Please model this.
Amino acid sequence: MGSALVRGLWRDNWHKKFRFLLYDVLPERSQGLAKELGLTSVQTFGELAPRFVFIAVKPKNVEELARTLQHFRNATFISVVAGFSIRKWREVLFEEAKVVRLMPNLCVEVGEGVVPICFSDSVPLSEREELLFLFSSLGWIFETPEENLGYFTALSGSGPGMVAMFIEGMMDEGVAMGITWETSLKVALQTVLGTAALLKAKGLHPAHFKNLVASPGGTTIAGVKALEKRGFKGIVMEGFEEAYGRLAKLFVEMG
Model:
């Protein structure tokens, strides 16, 4: 997720306004990304005095990392660590720490992500506005109470994997019909992309759009009927329900 955020911000030229310094416990990772994008990697925090510190690590590594960040007293800490609350961040950093929780999905890399965000009360309004503008280049921003971040994580975080399965199913059927898999994949990708773009541009409800596409006695309604016989929407809903249930269980295990 860290590299996806870097690529997404770099894509919109934010590296020309801010100096990006990349760090990873495995230096070859940050060095490789820095070389690819023309950025700077560091092997130690040294005398740095950053305005914004992005943290993308596993929850088990948070406390060890936090000890190396405690001297950044004036920085704003932007966490993409799932299940690690603002309260916990203040416990491992320092009580007055300015903390932002961000739960984006991987689509931020191409500027089409879902970006739920919440701020600690210590983040001033001027910084909130600056960060909201910064993150708007990554996709759609949803400022939300912290207790709702789990819903977004299950829906938008797991969603791309399930959408990819649907695309794969379209592609496979195209191959079964006799189309090459390369062409079939392009058709499936463009169909999903175009549908999403049109729904987004026109603000249409998906059910209304489906009715516009489905002609009486036509091919679309025949396909819809076959899907509905097998409980397609219910299956999709169950998939996300399972994803959220697993997420909630992980949060409990993490304490």
Summary: The mean pLDDT is 91. The CA atoms of residues 150 and 243 lie 10 Å apart. The radius of gyration is 21 Å. The first helix runs from residue 2 to 11.
